[in-house]
Specification:
FAD/NAD(P)-binding domain; eight-stranded mixed sheet; binds flavin-adenine dinucleotide
Length: about 425
């Protein structure tokens, strides 16, 4: 959509209004008189700020070790809190779970968390956008950046208009990794993407996973790089997200004001680091995702734990039999056989972790529990930065999940603050 108010030049242009872009915009607007244009191709920012919006406020959750020290992350998180104003969830009985976990070589991290809920997140985003407008940041929603022009400090919008800048921040999020790769190629910036998280999403009744009453999103680390991720309860649902050529599972929940549905979902992911000959995490994820598409007739698959244990595939006719006492929240997943579609090494480590989890929280492996596959989290393109403020080239910064500088809302916001610090220094 053409935005006629857009000028031809800005001190700073930010592409993407996810938490990374917002973090950068606030920092620059509150600390300088630079002209700032924030561009977002959708009506509202996408990603986790829009969906569920669980915020983690304890290092290292969301902060890749190669870019963040504990001290720095904790310090910048205080700044993030000022904007997102979190209501930190209480945690109970952590010692009980930690003690059980420790005995079998599992670690439970105790993390400060807040949860907004999918139904409330748009209001939060709208209020942040309004605050930015008051700070004179120009916001262009439903405006897509087509490409960055090499060596010219210009971008071209989808409608063909050209805008120049002193500094550009690209924060396109993980879903637009291939667009970012194109821009990195144009800018001749080196990058690699050899890591990917592959796993399942577990859905069960809250009574079989009662830890969520004590700890909203338990962060549990198992051997062989398997971990729990993104737990949802209250009014919790499973969704499928469209990627290029496949669907990946995800989960979210509504705010506490909604009627609980008695279900819980969480991901169990294994981190895979690839070496030669396949060195692209995106590529590996896509291959696995496409295999599921083939096997499921174009969707994602699900299997009851009861069937999985017996080594028999779940079938449509049996999926809701009297043996199984709740219905899946993702209606278009196909009842099938997990072990036919998941590489053995991943399946083995995930199943072992599930058994360990069942030792710590007995009940989670109830026959009714549903295992959905695939949940794929690409680690995106890790560009070669030339300074600690995520600069890849003089005047060009790449931040957020797409750049591997964060893995979650609060850390993405923090990466925006850091890039903004670099820009503020360059204007001194
Ligand atoms: C369904 C879902 C649920 C999640 N739940 C959580 C959660 O509860 N807690 C958590 O910490 N994390 C969650 N995450 C992860 C979280 O979304 C990310 O960690 C975080 O949003 C990354 O921020 P970002 O700013 O880097 O990217 P994003 O939030 O993805 O924002 C990037 C923005 O850039 C825009 N954009 C991309 N390309 C262009 C272009 N060419 N022109 C203009 N605009 C463009 C996109 O439309 C998007 O709005 C979830 C993710 C998903 C998909």
């Amino acid at each position: 959509m053409k935005n006629s108010n857009i000028k031809s030049h800005y001190d700073v242009i930010i592409v993407g209004s996810g938490p990374a872009g917002l973090g950068a915009a606030f920092k620059i607007a509150q600390n300088s008189k630079n002209s700032v244009l924030l561009i977002e191709k959708k009506k509202i920012s996408s990603g986790g700020l829009r969906n569920d919006c669980k915020q983690n406020y304890t290092f290292p959750v969301g902060f890749p070790f190669e870019h963040w020290s504990k001290d720095e992350a904790q310090k910048v998180l205080q700044e993030v809190k000022i904007h997102l104003n979190p209501n930190i969830e209480k945690r109970f009985n952590i010692e009980k779970y930690t003690k059980r976990a420790k005995k079998i070589g599992v670690e439970i991290l105790s993390i400060d968390q807040a949860h907004v809920g999918t139904d409330k997140s748009s209001a939060l985003i709208a209020s942040l956008i309004k605050k930015l407008e008051v700070l004179n940041v120009q916001i262009a929603l439903q405006t897509e950046v087509k490409e960055v022009v090499s060596n010219k400090k210009e971008i071209i919008l989808a409608d063909g208009s050209v805008i120049s800048f002193e500094n550009l921040i690209l924060a396109p999020g993980r879903a637009d990794y291939s667009w970012l790769q194109d821009q990195l190629n144009t800018l001749k910036v080196d990058y690699h993407d050899n890591i990917v998280d592959i796993g399942i999403r577990v859905e069960t009744k809250e009574e079989y996973y009662p830890i969520v009453k004590d700890y909203y999103d338990p962060k549990i680390l198992f051997p062989n790089k398997v971990r729990t991720f993104c737990t949802n309860s209250g009014c919790a649902h499973i969704v499928r997200e469209k990627y290029k050529g496949y669907y990946s599972i995800n989960g979210h929940s509504l705010s506490k004001e909604n009627k609980p549905n008695g279900l819980v979902n969480f991901a169990l992911l294994k981190t895979i680091r690839l070496t030669q000959p396949v060195v692209s995490g995106q590529q590996f994820g896509t291959i696995l995702g496409q295999m599921v598409m083939q096997l499921s007739g174009g969707s994602v698959i699900m299997q009851r734990v009861g069937d999985f244990r017996l080594g028999s595939r779940s079938k449509k006719e049996t999926f809701n039999s009297d043996l199984y006492d709740f219905k899946p929240t993702l209606k278009n997943a196909v009842a099938a056989d997990l072990s036919l579609s998941m590489p053995a090494k991943i399946l083995r480590d995930i199943w072992k972790s599930l058994k360990m989890l069942d030792t710590i929280i007995p009940g989670v492996l109830h026959p009714s529990t549903i295992l959905y596959y695939p949940e794929i989290k690409t680690y995106s393109n890790k560009p070669k930065f030339i300074d600690k403020n995520f600069m890849v080239k003089k005047g060009y910064y790449i931040i957020g999940d797409a750049a591997g500088t964060s893995r979650g809302i609060t850390a993405a916001w923090a990466s925006g603050i850091r890039a903004a610090n670099g820009i503020l220094l360059s204007f001194v």
